[in-house]
Automatic annotation (TrEMBL):
The lineage of its organism: Eukaryota, Sar, Rhizaria, Retaria, Foraminifera. It comes from the Eukaryota. Zn(2+) 2 binds at residue 136. One of its GO terms (molecular function) is metal ion binding. Zn(2+) 1 binds at residues 100, 135-136. Residues 21-198 form the PDEase domain. The active site is at residue 96. Keywords: Hydrolase, Metal-binding. This is Phosphodiesterase. GO terms for biological process: signal transduction. PROSITE patterns: PDEASE_I_1, PDEASE_I_2. InterPro entries: HD/PDEase_dom, PDEase, PDEase_catalytic_dom, PDEase_catalytic_dom_sf, PDEase_CS.
Length: 198
């Protein structure tokens, strides 16, 4: 009898960081990215241009402007792999899709510039940005009462308590733990996030 190992999810063989860097240097993308710090950032224009790379391109651009990648010494390849996987896990429904994740990410970044958030630690900023972009990952396109009334697998798994919210958080951690996606691995950040989760 042969031992059956669980299937692992592997990231693409293509170097995603190279593709993300190319999009960051694309003239049309650069024009849109001029407003990445503004309220009226053109999410739809960026989506039409970059497709599933948009989440990685926008997150990396915001993080570089804020100095987060450098501050934490994050591996750009792993960061990009994570965001490509997140984008792929967003379902293609009319509202709760990866464009919505980018919209909330850029709006959160905009609000984090407010006076009330002055002095916020880099770790807290990173947590806010990651949470914003992942807050609806895997969303099926309906709401908690629907899941609960249907007695869906998700509702049962999360005991009818914040069903979708728990699923989004769990899906984010699941992606983070995939091979080549754990940008927290080997950093003191990993321990901090684990303590926060408890």
């Amino acid at each position: 009898m042969q031992l059956q190992l669980p299937k692992k999810t592997y990231v693409h063989k293509i170097n995603t960081a190279v593709k993300v860097r190319k999009w960051q240097q694309n003239p049309a993308a650069l024009k849109i990215m001029e407003k990445i710090e503004d309220w009226d950032f053109d999410v739809f224009g960026m989506a039409n241009l970059c497709g599933n790379y948009m989440l990685a391109v926008v997150f990396c651009s915001i993080s570089e402007r804020r100095g987060l990648l450098q501050h934490f010494g994050l591996n750009i390849d792993t960061v990009c792999n994570f965001w490509i996987q997140v984008a792929q896990e967003y379902k293609k429904n009319p509202y709760h899709n990866h464009m919505h994740g980018v919209d909330v990410l850029t709006n959160t970044n905009y609000y984090l510039k407010s006076k009330i958030f002055e002095g916020l630690a880099e770790l807290d900023i990173l947590a806010c940005l990651v949470s914003a972009a992942c807050h609806d990952v895997g969303h099926p396109g309906n709401n908690n009462p629907f899941e609960i009334n249907l007695e869906s697998e998700l509702a049962v798994r999360y005991n009818d308590i914040s069903v979708l919210e728990n699923m989004h958080a769990a899906k984010t951690w699941e992606i983070l733990k995939r091979q080549g996606c754990d940008f927290l691995e080997g950093h003191c950040l990993s321990l901090h996030f684990q303590k926060t989760q408890e």
